[in-house]
Write a structure and sequence with these properties.
381 residues, six-stranded antiparallel β-sheet, elongated, Pdz3 Domain, two-stranded antiparallel sheet, 10 helices, single chain
Length: 381
């Protein structure tokens, strides 16, 4: 259990630190001093000032923040050193360094940088998995990879490794075409031509009209994809390419799932599939048990979740801050900093309340399932 907790904390720390590092590095790039780089949410447990920034660990280990100089309209007086050859005394920083006085483009880039870093982390994670687990490629051949016991295909003599070339007189090279042709022959005898060890065989069988759940009419699993291992020096390039495609796929999946949750909530239904810290711990533990590659892949999925949730236009989130910059662009003037700060504070309270509610739900499931191991099994089932 201790090992699972350590892995969970390492994964969580990686996601948060990468996100906040995005804000941090872009702020520094545009000359905005960073007052604090915090892991977790206040109250602060410990802090160490390095240069001009306090690096802190806070009591609530779920989230993080970067506090920028001049985020509100009140002059913030802090002692900075190392900003010039002679250093800078208290209160001497010009207002041009205030975050709120930077151009809208700069503020938007600083705000969105965390989301971009999480997206990049996801691509890298998926790229690592593809680099070591192999690259999928289309062979243009319908290869049988599984034959269900007692199925028409098994009775007719189909074996794993056969390559299906024809259904009756129709040549097939795509999975969808094969499925479509077989479905038209349900309940009727059909001839399937296969290639086996450079030998052509014609096998006869009757596709089932009502196959068992999880099986098709013939009871075969087919694919046109094989796993390819390119030369080692090429793998990072292939990995990043397929990692980017995987990130887009998961991003779309997460957006659809999030929209479904929102629709359920507005329709008065209890949203399904929401995980709090305990739920994420459960899935992280199961992923770690399945191997390093599974854990790295899960880190990619989790990083995309964090990116997409953060870009939502809700107060206290990066998307909420972008929304205020957008409002400023439309109306031609800033929302009063104190008003914006108050709205973000209210948003943070709401988010913490939701987090607490989800966590309480997770804890109830732990109790109902007889402990954390039962909860993990129920959660990932």
């Amino acid at each position: 259990m201790l090992g699972s907790i350590l892995i969970f904390l390492l994964v969580l720390s990686l996601l948060i630190l990468i996100h906040e590092f995005g804000h941090f590095i872009v702020a520094i790039k545009f000359g905005i001093p960073v007052l604090e780089f915090g892991f977790g949410l206040p109250p602060r447990i410990i802090g160490k000032k390095i240069g001009n920034t306090v690096f802190s660990i806070n009591a609530i280990p779920f989230g993080g923040f970067v506090r920028l100089f001049g985020e509100n309209d009140e002059e913030e007086r802090h002692v900075f050193t190392g900003l010039g050859k002679r250093g800078v005394a208290e209160g001497e920083l010009p207002k041009s360094k205030y975050f709120i006085n930077k151009p809208k483009r700069v503020r938007a880039l600083v705000t969105i940088a965390g989301v971009v870093m999480n997206f990049i982390l996801a691509i890298v994670a998926f790229g690592i998995v593809y680099s070591f687990a192999g690259i999928p490629r289309n062979t243009g051949k319908l290869e049988v990879v599984d034959v269900a016991a007692g199925s028409p295909a098994q009775s007719a003599g189909v074996v794993v490794g056969d390559v299906i070339t024809k259904v009756e007189k129709d040549s097939v090279t795509k999975v969808d075409d094969f499925i479509s042709l077989v479905n038209t022959k349900k309940g009727k005898r059909v001839s399937i031509e296969v290639q086996r060890n450079e030998t052509t065989l014609k096998l006869s069988m009757v596709p089932r009209e009502a196959p068992p759940e999880g099986e098709g009419p013939l009871g075969v699993t087919i694919t046109t994809t094989e796993i390819y291992f390119p030369p080692f020096w090429q793998r990072p390039f292939y990995g990043i390419y397929y990692g980017f495609k995987e990130a887009l796929f998961w991003g779309q999946t997460i957006v659809v799932g999030l929209w479904t949750i929102i629709v359920q909530a507005f329709n008065g239904k209890v949203p399904q599939g929401i995980a709090g810290p305990v739920g994420i711990f459960a899935v992280t533990t199961e992923a770690a048990r399945s191997g390093v590659m599974t854990l790295i892949n899960f880190i990619g999925v989790l990083s995309l979740n964090l990116a997409i949730l953060n870009i939502l236009p809700f107060p206290a989130l990066d998307g909420g801050r972008l929304l205020f910059i957008g409002i400023e662009s439309i109306v031609g003037r800033k929302v009063l900093p104190r008003v914006e700060a108050t709205i973000h504070s209210i948003g943070m309270v709401i988010l913490l309340a939701l987090l607490l509610a989800v966590t309480v739900g997770d804890i109830k499931r732990v109790i109902l399932n007889g402990g954390i191991d039962g909860f993990i099994e129920s959660f990932v089932r």
